[in-house]
Automatic annotation (TrEMBL):
A Gene Ontology biological process term: tRNA processing
Alphabetized SUPFAM superfamilies for the sequence: Nucleotidyltransferase, Poly A polymerase C-terminal region-like
Keyword list, A-Z: Magnesium, Metal-binding, Nucleotide-binding, Nucleotidyltransferase, RNA-binding, Transferase, tRNA processing, tRNA-binding
Species name: Terriglobus saanensis (strain ATCC BAA-1853 / DSM 23119 / SP1PR4)
GO MF entry, a single one: nucleotidyltransferase activity
Region annotation Disordered: where it falls in the sequence: 462-496, 519-547
PANTHER family, alphabetized: A-ADDING TRNA NUCLEOTIDYLTRANSFERASE, POLYA POLYMERASE
Family to which the UniProt record says this protein belongs: Belongs to the tRNA nucleotidyltransferase/poly(A) polymerase family.
Protein name (database record): Polynucleotide adenylyltransferase region
Cofactor dependence: Mg(2+)
Length: 583
């Protein structure tokens, strides 16, 4: 369903969409239902260009005649089948018919009766033409394919709906050849066998005059009528249709030129039906009486009137195109796209003056290059994006300004775009609070007490005054342990560095009193044990970290009391001991 909605919106031209929208609006107040049927659905499904539209109404289509005449022209009608032949603006051909069943008491003698849309699809000629798309609210785009026509479209086959299709309605013999010439399809095996049987039995003789004229007009509406006539001639059907008309009566060179110019206009969005212009070419070698007799057979006499009116429309359009109103390139461009496509094609093919040909040459080659100069980057820098409501209209205006060479520099472009540039957006406010700085975490392995003790020791040592270096003789007697032989020796001490580290006290010989030097914390010295033998001379040696210069620190006097054992607290971190130096 969604796929066919997409096809309806993108594969149909704007003129065709307008025709369908108008018909939907006309049938809705009457309570009728509308369906797109026949060749239009086949071409949408198979990817072929949609040439004309067939719509079916569940009800009497003739009751819509007055309403349709307000928006389109009625080219003809077929009372027996309750069908109208309509031409909408833009040259869109639409056949509006009533849903009905079809029976044949005799070959070529149809009897119509009102029916539902599904019954209508089951009585058609080929399965590929027996599909419908709903155009009604609530089911828009719904595909109905009761005979599996999609499979035959994929296989590019023409399959009869009824086994007696060629016998009941001989016009299907002609239609099978014409569709095969246009689409390049072949008949399904059983259908081909029934076709051969009907051809041998001569069922074509039951063809009614109305059906003969309908098929002749359809040949004139073919994009390549010469190809269709040649294939019909090969089957012997042209003699049954019109003995005095065939491919030999056509101006094939002029017809090829017309088809080439029609293709050039289609590249610029001018979609013209060339039938009204091509008809004089495919009957170029026929006498006027023969042409007149042929035209009288057409069921759409409005088509005959359109052929006669081509010349007058061409002159009127030529005067507008070469006049002052279309002097500017943009004005001429708008005139090309607002005029009837068939008239534009007719003047391109029939107009021989230099002024006309120069206009067409510029329209096809020069003016379209202005689209390549559209300043998309500049528009983006000025915040003019597709989100703006006037964006597409602005592109069209820019296209016309560039086409007329009114905007040649960047400054002119910016000045032209400035009124359309929206104001700059306010700066973005960050509502998130800044993250607070996290405090440095204590390294692993150190406790809070050890860190506090280290900080206190560092503060105490920083507050302790440092003494100047003295000579060795200034050291008082008894401040250091005695050497061997009872003579006291000087104690070696070093100046504390910025980073305090413990120092070992070395002695040459073993003394009776052993001073146990323990590792002190970087900032706090640990007391030593006092010997009971010489309490007067024993004093705790204050140990400092090694320093660059050797100094002597006077030891404080020690009271003559029995020294108590003091357990020194071991430092929590032993890493500073590795950095000690020996003097």
């Amino acid at each position: 369903m969604a796929d066919y909605i997409y096809l309806l919106e993108n594969r149909l031209s704007q003129a065709q969409q307008y025709a369908l929208t108008t018909l939907r609006d006309l049938v809705r107040p009457k309570g009728l239902t509308l369906f797109l049927t026949g060749g239009a659905v086949r071409d949408l499904t198979g990817g072929a260009p949609v040439r004309d539209l067939d719509v079916t109404v569940q009800g009497n289509a003739l009751s819509l005649r007055k309403e349709i005449e307000k928006f389109a022209s009625i080219d003809g009608e077929y009372d027996l089948a309750q069908s109208l032949y309509v031409t909408f603006p833009g040259g869109v051909r639409v056949e509006v018919s009533s849903a009905s069943t079809l029976t044949f008491p005799k070959p070529g003698k149809p009897v119509y009766a009102p029916a539902s849309i599904l019954d209508d699809l089951r009585r058609r000629d080929f399965t590929a033409n027996s599909m419908a798309i709903s155009l009604n609210d609530g089911s828009y785009g719904l595909l109905m394919d009761p005979l599996n026509g999609v499979a035959d479209i994929e296989n590019r086959e023409l399959r009869l709906v009824s086994n007696y299709g060629f016998i009941e309605d001989p016009i299907r013999l002609l239609r099978a050849i014409r569709l095969g010439a246009r689409l390049g399809w072949h008949m399904e095996e059983r259908t081909q066998a029934r076709y051969n049987t009907a051809k041998e039995e001569g069922y074509i003789s039951a063809l009614s005059p109305w059906e003969r004229g309908y098929e002749l007009e359809e040949i004139a509406h073919e994009e390549d009528p010469i190809r269709a006539m040649r294939m019909l001639e090969a089957e012997g059907w042209m003699k049954e249709l019109a003995p005095n008309w065939g491919s030999a009566k056509a101006n094939q060179a002029a017809l090829s030129e017309l088809q080439a110019k029609n293709g050039e206009l289609q590249q610029q969005g001018i979609l013209a039906y060339s039938a009204t212009i091509a008809f004089p070419l495919i009957t170029a070698k026929m006498s006027p009486k023969e042409v007149e007799a042929l035209q009288k057979l057409f069921p759409r006499q409005g088509f005959v009137a359109q052929i006669a009116a081509v010349e007058g429309h061409v002159k009127e359009f030529q005067n507008k195109l070469t006049g002052k109103e279309a002097a500017a390139p943009s004005a001429a461009w708008k005139l090309f796209h607002s005029s009837d496509p068939e008239t534009v094609l007719a003047l391109y093919f029939l107009g021989k003056s230099a002024a006309v040909q120069n206009k067409y040459k510029a329209f096809l080659t020069e003016w379209p290059t202005a689209k390549q100069r559209l300043p998309y980057q500049v528009m983006t820098e000025m915040r003019i994006t597709p989100d703006l409501p006037v964006y597409h209209e602005l592109l069209d205006e820019l296209f016309f300004e560039l086409m007329d060479n009114k905007l040649g520099t960047i400054e002119e472009l910016k000045a032209y775009l400035e009124p359309y540039s929206p104001p700059a957006p306010p700066p973005v406010v960050n509502l998130r609070r800044a993250r607070a700085k996290k405090e440095a975490k204590a390294p692993r392995g150190k406790s809070k007490k050890a860190l506090a003790a280290a900080e206190a020791a560092a503060a105490a040592e920083a507050a302790e005054p440092m003494s100047l270096p003295n000579e060795v003789g200034d050291v008082p007697v008894g401040s250091a342990p005695e050497r061997d032989g009872g003579e006291p020796g000087p104690a070696k001490k070093s100046i504390a560095k910025e980073k305090v580290a413990p120092v070992k006290v070395a002695t040459k010989a073993a003394a009776p009193v052993v001073v146990a030097a323990k590792k002190a914390a970087p900032a706090k010295s640990a007391p030593v044990k006092a010997t009971p033998a010489k309490p007067k001379q024993a004093a705790p040696a204050k140990k400092a970290a090694p320093a660059k210069k050797v100094i002597v620190v006077k030891a404080p006097p020690v009271k003559k009391a029995v020294a108590k054992k003091v357990v020194a607290k071991a430092p929590a971190k032993k890493a500073p001991a590795k950095k000690s130096t020996k003097r």
